[in-house]
Here is the input.
Amino acid sequence: MRQTIQKVILLVLAGSICLVGCRRLPPKGQFTIDGGYRQVMGTFARVVAVADTEPQGRSAIDAAFEKIDAIEQCMSDYDPNSLLSKVNQQAFRQPVAINDELMTVLCASMECYCLSGGAFDITVGPVVQLWRQAKKNDAAPTPKQLEQARQAVGCQNLFIDTEGQTVQFAKEGMFLDLGGIGKGYAVDRAVEILRTAGLKGGMVDIGGNLRCFGTPANGAEHWLIGLQDPANDENILLKLKMDDRAVATSGDYRRFVVLDGQKHSHIINPATADSAQSLSSVTIIAPTAMAADALSTTVTVLGDQKGLGLIESITDVEAILIPHSEKLSFEKTSAADRYIMAE
Ligand code: AMP
Ligand code: MG
Here is the structure.
């Protein structure tokens, strides 16, 4: 058995999970290439390749980032020229033609809306916009503004025509926000690019939405993912061992605004138009990054009891939650322990 020669801990600033390097000597003719951090989708992304040659790894990493950039150009609600923005501007007046990628994400979002009883809802955009504005103005929206925005929320008013490949809104003022699912989708597509390039293994992380496959980096036995302490980024609470899995963390501790002494996170409960309150961090382990992304946002809205109940009912998906409390504690689904590395 080759000896562990070095331990490196690399922290992703934007997310609350990170790749933890536990290195052994890699076999001859196997290269781990770390593409480093690049800014995409309003956060940081990182791609790691395990390749036969260094050039093979580097060109796969570049191709993966190109794919991520293309998805951002399609699905960003910040970019007025994105396809998503075209939908937001025009879909109340007429059906808007969309591409396969946006169709896939909209259909998956609709599925998660139904599965979660409306807790995950990409039409929450008007309310998200109000809270974003509140952060800029340093003043909470008025109850009247929130109620008005809430009127335009609800996936029952979103019509997706899978045959005609179009989307249409039934209510004026509707606005789609893919912030809770788009990064996961981009991770899955980037992983597809790495696999197609013939890599032995790889990892893609976009702001705490991460997926790995195949041979782990640096000759390690598994891909090791660190779950960061919501109260202190530098503290790794748990190490998760992953093989061909995705993991995503949502939480209210990094992106929030304090107004009138009250903390409001960026995750909205569509039923109340206020932010989801009860959980500090929600980590979901799933076969795809899109599922992990959408479900981590969903469970943040649902809270621990309903959230754990939902995840228990889904095959091959596990959850690790950290509730708000003075003392650090975990709540987990029944099979989550199989991913947690014993110290
Ligand atoms: P995440 O960090 O993956 O949990 O996603 C949070 C982002 O999802 C927010 O910044 C919003 O853009 C969007 N979002 C907020 N609340 C919801 C919700 N209830 N359903 C779907 N997306 C949401
Ligand atoms: Mg999410």
